[in-house]
Design a protein that fits this description.
By secondary structure, the protein is of the alpha+beta class. The chain has 4 helices and 8 strands, in the order E-H-E-E-E-H-E-E-E-H-H-E. Strands 1, 2, 3, 4, 5 and 8 form a 6-stranded antiparallel beta sheet that branches. The protein has a two-stranded antiparallel ribbon with strand order 6-7. The chain is globular.
């Protein structure tokens, strides 16, 4: 069984209901057990900043699905919930990202783990630290607290609000 962290985001429709609905769908995946769920956070968009604020969360699951199988299941949930990939970092009903898959480092065309942008995004790091403050990133050995301090020093503390 692998411990896996998944980032969730929504900035279209009923954002809170979208995240809750996605978690319920993840819960129903065979061979997946949800262990921890972070608080909800309101965050400013990242990348493409000309859009509505996001609601974000991070969950921890255990699974014996492969990383590829889990990715497929998460993409299936996104599609069933109405996600359309029209523009990079554009508005979305739901976004589900595998952030970390055990202590594995994966670099394939379909999947990169740890998630390639997670160490730059307070909307990932803050809820991730909430549910596991002792995380060490498998690719470089950095501790989450150290990474988060650098991001907050760069962005300030105004980009994320816990609700």
């Amino acid at each position: 069984m692998k411990n896996v962290f998944i980032g969730l985001g929504s900035n279209s429709g009923d954002k809170k209901a979208n995240l809750t609905g996605a978690i319920n769908r993840i819960k129903s995946i065979n061979k997946v057990e949800i262990k921890k769920i972070s608080s909800f956070y309101i965050t400013k968009p990242w990348g493409n900043t000309n859009q509505e604020d996001f609601f974000n969360q991070v969950i921890e699951i255990t699974t014996d699905l492969s990383a590829g199988e889990l990715l497929y299941k998460l993409q299936e949930i996104e599609i069933k919930m109405g996600r359309q990939r029209k523009e990079k970092w554009g508005p979305r009903i739901i976004d589900l990202d595998i952030l970390m898959y055990g202590d594995e480092v994966i670099d394939s065309p379909e999947l990169k783990i740890p998630h390639p942008y997670m160490k730059e995004r307070s909307f990932v790091l803050v809820p991730l630290q909430e549910i596991d403050p002792k995380i060490v990133f498998p690719d470089d050995g950095a501790k989450i607290e150290e990474v988060l301090i650098k991001v907050i020093a760069r962005e300030g503390n105004n980009r994320i609000i816990k609700i």
